[in-house]
Design brief:
The complex is a heterodimer of chains A (513) and B (118). With 513 residues, chain A is of the alpha/beta class. Chain A folds into two domains: 163 residues, 2-Layer Sandwich (Ribosomal Protein S5, domain 2); 232 residues, P-loop containing nucleotide triphosphate hydrolases (Rossmann fold). Helices cover 36% and strands 16% of the residues of chain A. Chain A has 21 helices and 16 strands. In chain A, helix 7 runs parallel beside helix 8 and helix 20 packs across helix 21. The termini of chain A are far apart. Chain B has 118 residues and is α+β, with helices and mostly antiparallel strands. Chain B has one domain: 3-Layer(aba) Sandwich (Trna Endonuclease, Chain: A, domain 1), CATH 3.40.1350.10. Chain B is 31% helix and 36% strand. Chain B is built from two helices and five strands; from the N terminus they run H-E-E-E-H-E-E. In chain B, strand 3, helix 2 and strand 4 form a beta-alpha-beta unit. The longest helix of chain B is centred in the first third of the chain and has 19 residues. Chain B is globular and about 45 Å long. Classes of the chains: A alpha/beta (513), B alpha+beta (118). Chains A and B meet through loops of A and loops of B.
């Protein structure tokens, strides 16, 4: 019986499943069949594998090769199975020796080189979790695969080299073939492109907004900035990721895994340590923001912003259903996408920053005498941000135009590093206080904890109680102010918010809508 | 006779010898009708064997087996029917075999035999 067996990984969303690849050689006319729900690109593997093996000096058997991918019911797609199928076929014809429990994840070029594929990081994570620690990937994917703790990774440049290491006859192999480095791939020695993140020093004036941004960073509060064009809304939003602390080990793996799935280039991926920043354009579709696409849905901007910042500029211009689709991830930190081909779950715990003009003409600021919008139009414009969405946005700040005094003679503004240090300290205090509740940031604390275990004394909350009594503050608004007050206390190294913190917190949410 | 026909002829001789050595009885060679030609008709016990012989000098243009496609197989089935009609025989047990002969003109030719290909 001529049978070969190897292993690979199929990805469904970020979850990987071990796939057993069987190859059988039948004594009948030459053919190549792939079974087990292959998609079009996987079916093309037949031609790639035949040519790659031929050009590596170890042609596949001139008989009927049947490759079976198990479990058969799991839909499989992409070119990452090429290598596992090729190795199984070579094993079936006894050209190489058994590969044991080694997992193969790579695409084959016609010349026999191993090409990198998307999603190697989550695939290797899945393999290691399933108890398959030996992994063979393309050279260009090796660094990424090695990020996974416990994986024994081997990167190969060509099929011939790999076959040689598994005992193929060196007389026949095309071992002298060394592929050129792929175009567009950075040389091993060259530094990764590093760009300097924007610094808070560049923001002139806007004291309130700077303070609001610091509070947002410290407590992981969602943020809405309204203000006229040119007030610096985008500038501020771009600087928020710089204020956030580095990602922890587990978080960094999550973020890198998503980036591995989305990678368009084959450039080798490094561990993402900084919170990502995504700013999709307001014409973006729901599929682009929350994830979608043919077959199994792929992650969208909300997932790419996982553990980072999702900035929606001109928020009222977005389609309503796009904005409302964000309510689920804001609540659960996860996006579960159901399609006929299967269900994919992607993490999406991002910090939301919304920016909006005060009205369609953008001039309704200050006294608003230049504004040409009617009151109805103005009201409708901001009403496009639905109540349930704004309910989750703790800080809602109105920006004014930068005054000439601030702009003409910029004083020495604080830089990002200084503010980030305060944010870091405040995060530390939150973790110490909230870990018993299973939370890490003030933004996550539900109202019943705020008004229960973390209840403040009546004298401190007196202005809040008054405001609520008079009906200017809703119950939800009450909780939001409390959350912000805690963050302000954390930034000020106070164990418990004082009446001043409550007052400041009230000021940070002069509700725009 | 052209060179390729000489090669094909030699391949068929080799194939016939091979089948005989395998214990089959050759009943007909190069039988022709309007549909085409059967290289070898043989009997393997009670089974009628329609054998197609493919001869090549090298693998430069692919393996001989790769030259037998779906169309060729369909024609071989029609030819098998035609042969039975012509000889007024009813042969319920039949199969199509393909024999590849690789003859580079230097060493001994290699003969490969696939039974019952479809």
């Amino acid at each position: 019986m001529a049978l070969g067996r190897t292993y690979s990984v199929a990805l469904v969303g970020l979850n990987g499943y071990i796939v057993e690849v069987e190859a059988d050689i039948g004594q009948t006319l030459p053919a190549f069949i792939i079974l087990g729900l292959p998609d079009a690109s996987l079916n093309e593997a037949k031609e790639r594998i035949r040519s790659a093996a031929q050009n590596s000096g170890i042609p596949l058997s001139r008989r009927k090769i049947t490759a079976n991918l198990i479990p058969a019911s799991l839909p499989k797609r992409g070119s990452g199975f090429d290598l596992a199928i090729a190795m199984a076929a070579l094993l079936a014809s006894r050209d190489i020796r058994s590969t044991g429990r080694t997992v193969f994840i790579a695409e084959l070029g016609l010349d026999g080189r191993l090409r990198p594929v998307r999603g190697v990081l989550p695939a290797v994570m899945a393999a290691v979790r399933a108890g398959y620690a030996d992994v063979v990937v393309a050279q260009a994917n090796a660094a990424e695969a090695e990020l996974v703790p416990g994986a024994r990774v081997q990167g190969y440049a060509t099929l011939a080299r790999l076959a040689f290491d598994f005992g193929a006859d060196p007389q026949r192999l095309a071992l002298d073939f060394e592929p050129e480095p792929e175009p567009g791939e950075p040389d091993a020695g060259a530094d990764a492109p590093s760009f300097l993140p924007p610094d808070m020093r560049d923001v002139a004036g806007q004291g309130d907004a700077r303070r609001a941004l610091e509070v947002a960073a410290a407590g992981a509060h969602h943020l809405l900035l309204t203000g006229p064009p040119g007030a610096g809304k985008t500038m501020l939003a771009e600087r928020l990721p710089g204020l956030l602390p580095d990602l922890g080990d587990a978080e960094a793996m999550e973020v890198t895994a998503i980036h591995s799935l989305c990678a368009l280039t084959s450039a080798s991926l490094q561990l993402v340590r900084r919170p990502p920043y995504e700013s999709p354009h307001h014409t973006a579709t729901a599929a682009a923001i929350i994830g979608g696409g043919t077959g199994l849905p792929r992650p969208g901007a909300a997932s790419r912003a996982h553990r980072g910042v999702l900035f929606l500029d001109e928020a009222p211009e977005y389609e309503r259903r796009v904005l409302d689709a964000l309510r689920q991830p804001l609540e659960s930190g996860e996006l579960v996408l159901h399609r006929s081909a299967g269900t994919a779950a992607y993490p999406a715990r991002f910090q939301l920053v919304l920016a909006a003009n005060p009205c369609p003409c953008g001039k309704a600021t200050g006294k608003g005498i230049d504004c040409i919008c009617t009151p109805t139009i103005r009201r409708r414009y901001l009403a496009r941000l639905s109540g349930p969405l704004l309910d989750r946005v703790d800080i809602q700040l109105q920006l004014e135009r930068v005054s000439l005094a601030d702009f003409g003679q910029p004083g020495p503004e604080e830089d990002t590093a200084t503010i980030a240090a305060r944010v870091h300290a405040a995060r530390g205090r939150q973790i110490a206080r909230l870990l018993p509740f299973g939370m890490e940031t003030n933004a996550q604390v539900p109202g019943r904890v705020l008004r229960g275990a973390l209840r403040l004394g009546a004298p401190t909350t007196r202005i809040l109680d008054l405001a609520m009594e008079r009906g200017v503050l809703t119950a939800r608004g009450y909780d939001r102010v409390l959350r912000l007050a805690w963050t302000l206390a954390d930034l000020g190294h106070r164990d418990i918010p004082a009446a001043d913190d409550i007052g400041l917190a009230l000021g940070l949410r002069q509700a725009a809508a | 006779m052209r060179a390729k026909d000489v090669l094909g002829r030699r391949g068929e001789e080799l194939a016939a010898g091979y089948l005989t050595a395998q214990g089959m009885r050759i009943v007909d060679r190069n039988w022709r009708c309007s549909e085409g030609e059967i290289d070898i008709v043989a009997l393997d016990g009670d089974t009628l064997v329609i054998a197609e012989v493919k001869t090549r000098k090298s693998l430069a243009y692919g393996h001989p087996f790769e030259a037998v496609g779906v169309d060729k197989l369909a024609r071989l089935h029609r030819l098998a029917n035609a042969w039975c009609r012509d000889h007024e025989l009813r042969m319920p047990l039949r199969r199509i075999d393909v024999i590849a002969v690789l003859d580079d003109g230097i060493g001994d030719p290699a003969v490969e035999h696939l039974k019952g290909v479809g």
